[in-house]
Amino acid sequence: MQNQSNKIKHHRRWNIAKIKGVHWIRYLLQYTAMEIFFDDSNAPIFLNFSSQKDVKRAGSLLVSLRNDALFPKGSIKDKNSVISFVDRRVALEIAENAKERWKRREISNFEYLMILNTLAGRSYNDLTQYPIFPWVLADYASENLDFNKSSTFRDLSKPVGALDEKRFKDFEDRYLNFCDPDIPSFYYGSHYSSMGIVLHYLLRLEPFTTLHRSLQGGKFDHADRLFQSIDSAYRNSLSNSSDVKELIPEFFYMPEFLENSNSYHLGIKQDGEPLGDVALPPWAKGSPEEFIHINREALESEYVSSNLHHWIDLIFGYKQRGQPAVEAANIFYYVTYEGAVDLENMDDMIQKYAIEDQIANFGQTPIQIFRVKHPRRGPPIPIAHPLYFAPQSITLTSSVSSTISHMSAVLFIGLLDNTIILMNEGLILSVKLWLTTRTQLGGNFTFSGPQENFFGVGSDVISPRKIGTFLAENVKFGRQLLATMQINSDKYLILCGNWENSFQIISLSDGRIVQSIRQHKDVVGCVAVSSDGNVVATGSYDTTVMIWHAFRGRPSEKKMRTANFEISENDHIIMERPVHILCGHDDIITCLFVSTELDIVVSGSKDGTCIFHTLREGRYVRSIRHPSGFGLSKLVATRHGRVVLYSEIDLSLHMHSINGKHIASATSIGRLNCMELSCCGEFMACAGEHGQIVLRSMHSLDIVWKYPGAGKGITSLAMTREECFIAGTKDGSLLVFSVETALIRRGSMPQTSVKPSGAG
């Protein structure tokens, strides 16, 4: 025990400037806690204090220190970057804003529910008030699901306890006949969310396995009482008088919790069968990934979008308390509600501990966010997501010929805000405007202005000019050598492959090289930038990956001292020394991905090895290999944790989860020059010498649609946030693929969407 205690970290340190939110929340129904969120890969931290006064003082101080760290006295404050202590008033303002965004379909159902859970004090850091999600499907027996049938879905206007009429009659009788001078009448003695429910669902994953065993006195509960089947779990929540549980977020994004990958001995069921993986519905085809995919599709379906406001009223809204809750049969045992007991002023410690145990183990009703009826979601807007609703409506709408005197291939296309960054063969840089016409949401889905061109390439921001540097002789110039990044309002291009083993930062305001960094011992062969622009990863022929932080200097400072060197904010865009040097490869690094959200760096090499490291600590996680050991040419990865590897030797595509599980494989149509993801992460566009763009599903790698080009080989590709394609060709032309004019109007927009179990 002494050795174990020595390994425990008694002190932790966080960068106060990285705080993006401080929320005042409850612990055991008392407002004595706060949760701190960060804008890097640090997980949120949950702190409980002895009193409301202490937590409010500490939270306000943290917010003040954070704002002062980013904007010291005398500097110009960016209103969008200044944060406030999120107390109940601020939380309600955030909720109202999120509600309007959800109504306008700017955020998904999943995103909206996560926002509401956070604002209602639900936290991954506290098992007693874990985030709550609804059962959305009612059919766990069919071979296939039909999202056009209402019977496929659960009735979201009723609490789980009222879904089965026969069982509800028993609950209703108890409510009407209950008589106790100290305990108010209630329908349900158990709750829809509790620590036991969370540990029941997540039994097969650590640390929940250990926590479950601890709750059960050091051993697993009887096998027949453990989570064994999706269908039986749903049926039990409809029939068992002590089971009215809802779901947790993992049902919509984490297939791993359904598998007994650690081979725990969970016991033998009464039928003599050992308990292993969770039994899935027939429509999941035996695949946890397919189950999660279809369940998520169901959550985002039109039926749920049109009815989710009813469930929000029950869990977070006006039907949670008072007479509306009585009329909705939504009354739980009184101790689950805020304000039912005042623990802070309770003198009887034995009674206090008993009530705390009851609150911790038997459920807590979320903080009430809305006091009036929640509005219904607005109608779908197909034009906002054409790849999902109607991929066939996208066609080649315009072509821009090369403006360079001698035709040279466009080898890189980058997008930052409303600009297109181009790099042609011969290191010729140009920057052009990306033109869009604003969508009018009222009436028909039409665009203002001319009806012929909705999207297009505009005039030069920077006219074509040659970058004054030299590439190493053994480097093949292409997409992997370039990346764009934005710091505040300044835009930059990162260029690798230099003969002196450096990489360079080029200002996109004038095309000037503003910084050159030389730390690798051989040629820098690839680069990647995180989606937030804070982290840069470089891979080299020296077989190492280096991680760099962007330098976001404060307006009032002239110099910043870090370690043993000084940084002048006028001269440095990226810190001169790497944060981590990642090793493990035995050959040239050929492709990279870095994500602060996922806390991951993925690197591929010429010997077919792909290695995962954590971003924050630089710790090795796992390796996967190309099945035939062929070199990896390209990789893409989504924020949902799907990684696709491509080898130009056998033209193969292989998809893995971020946890290393192989999901799907496919063979590309010809040699690929480019692979790009849609902003939503659901689709991957591939293009190459064959001159067409092939759209694939990031769920299965199935082909969703093929877009014929202009008979020219495509050498570069980008996907805009409007889901247009911009393709660069061998002769220096730019091709724009966008939604066809005739299909914009509401009446003629195809209503087909990608099916949940199909290719996309």
UniProtKB/TrEMBL annotation:
Domain BEACH: 87-377
Organism from which the protein derives: Aegilops tauschii subsp. strangulata (Goatgrass)
Keywords assigned by UniProt, alphabetized: Repeat, WD repeat
Organism lineage string: Eukaryota, Viridiplantae, Streptophyta, Embryophyta, Tracheophyta
Entry annotated with the keyword Flavoprotein: no
Highest taxon in the source lineage: Eukaryota
WD repeat spans: 517-548
Record flagged with keyword Repeat: yes
UniProt-listed InterPro entries: BEACH_dom, BEACH_dom_sf, BEACH_Domain, NBCH_WD40, PH-BEACH_dom, PH-like_dom_sf, WD40/YVTN_repeat-like_dom_sf, WD40_repeat_dom_sf
Protein name (Swiss-Prot/TrEMBL): BEACH domain-containing protein
